[in-house]
From TrEMBL:
InterPro entries: BEACH_domain_protein. Residues 17-36, 41-64 are annotated as: Disordered. Keywords: WD repeat. Residues 21-33, 45-60 have a biased composition (Low complexity). This is Wings apart-like protein C-terminal domain-containing protein.
Length: 365
């Protein structure tokens, strides 16, 4: 991604003038070391400074650390915006997002924090595009040109040599932004909702190669160690899934959310995901082939689709008709079997059909 052109475009859209960067501050070699000190909770660079503040209360130390973190965030954010080199921009953005996530954990008023630190619209759009770009890289770099759950979980778990986890931090930042009372449109414009639909589909349809991979070791000690790793990975996956679902539901409440999905096949994919959960998934659950947690994810997918339809003003009515998406839902109801299907889930599909019909009577249809 060419961040320079992207930032210029979004600044023109929101009517902001370019910020004149200070070469001395943006190229200062001390900014990264300042960040590392702040990350360790130090924030003081010399023995004299340490002795000077030794008698202060913990509250004063907290405020000092918070001030240093905010200062460092602005430095890295400015480096990101002013640098002409993609690698430097990537490093600076990772640093800024890491600091932002730590500040979010310290403050309850995220909206006030964002407004204090940065231009909200630009920051939201940049975070969304960075997330989408990194996920797209995972797809492009795979042999099959598709997402795999192992690679996705590595993205949300891996850390850099500085102890920063870019994937986890981006997810944390997006969740903070959607939870705050700020405009969600820049995030939707970034394409992140479509990206999250594809991620949810990966979690609903994990690779066959990802199952049973911990049971081939011949040594019993290795088996125990791998089993612990497997449990840790599962817990991390549950955490990531929960965050993704929360973000999707928050974005789906926006009136233009559904409209953002018709530019590609992500809305159609969501319809297919919901109908797949009608019968085949429940029959697999009864046979012990999938865990109950997977069924819960399908229910979340249905709730997300319902939110998209309820909040849409009718703009997606023609798209739904053109791609025969109601037919997907009708087939799921038609194929209902009390032995294999869940009645409550099927009634949820009936509600979705009614919501699709109601779309055609709204002003935007």
């Amino acid at each position: 991604m060419k961040w320079t052109a992207l930032l210029k475009d979004i600044k023109e859209k929101v009517g902001l003038t370019p910020i004149q960067s200070n070469n001395d501050s943006s190229t200062s070699p001390s900014s990264h070391s300042r960040y590392l000190n702040s990350a360790e909770g130090v924030g003081i660079s010399s023995a004299e400074s340490s002795s000077q503040f030794a008698g202060q209360s913990s509250d004063s130390s907290y405020e000092r650390g918070k001030y240093d973190s905010e200062f460092d965030f602005k430095r890295f954010w400015e480096e990101f915006r002013s640098s002409s080199y993609e690698k430097e921009k990537e490093v600076s953005l990772n640093m800024a997002v890491d600091i932002f996530c730590r500040l979010v954990k310290q403050q309850a008023d995220v909206a006030r924090l964002v407004n204090t630190l940065v231009e909200t619209h630009i920051f939201s759009f940049v975070i969304g595009r960075a997330f989408v770009t990194d996920i797209e890289k995972l797809r492009i770099h795979s042999k099959e040109k598709s997402l795999h759950i192992a690679n996705v979980m590595d993205f949300f778990s891996d850390s850099t040599k500085n102890g920063i986890s870019p994937g986890s931090n981006l997810l944390c930042a997006v969740e903070a932004l959607v939870s705050a009372p700020i405009d969600k449109q820049p995030l939707l414009d970034s394409g992140i909702l479509s990206c999250l639909i594809y991620l949810l589909n990966v979690f609903l349809n994990p690779d066959d190669t990802d199952h049973g991979q911990f049971h081939n070791a011949s040594n019993s000690r290795e088996n125990i160690s791998l089993k612990k790793d497997e449990n840790t990975t599962k817990l991390k996956q549950l955490e990531v899934e929960g965050t993704i679902v929360h973000i999707m539901k928050a974005l789906a409440n926006h009136s233009s959310a559904a409209l953002c999905l018709i530019e590609n096949d992500s809305l159609q994919l969501l319809f297919q995901m919901v109908t797949t959960g009608s019968c085949s998934v429940f029959s697999r659950l009864k046979n012990g082939h999938i865990p109950l947690h997977t069924i819960q994810l399908y229910r979340h997918a249905m709730q997300i689709l319902s939110l998209l339809l309820v909040n849409d003003n009718g703009n997606t009515a023609k798209y739904i008709q053109k791609h025969h998406l109601i037919k997907f839902l009708l087939m799921a109801v038609k194929d209902f079997n009390s032995d294999d299907c869940d009645p409550a889930y099927t009634m949820g599909i009936v509600d979705l059909i009614m919501e699709c019909v109601e779309l055609s009577y709204r002003p935007g249809a």
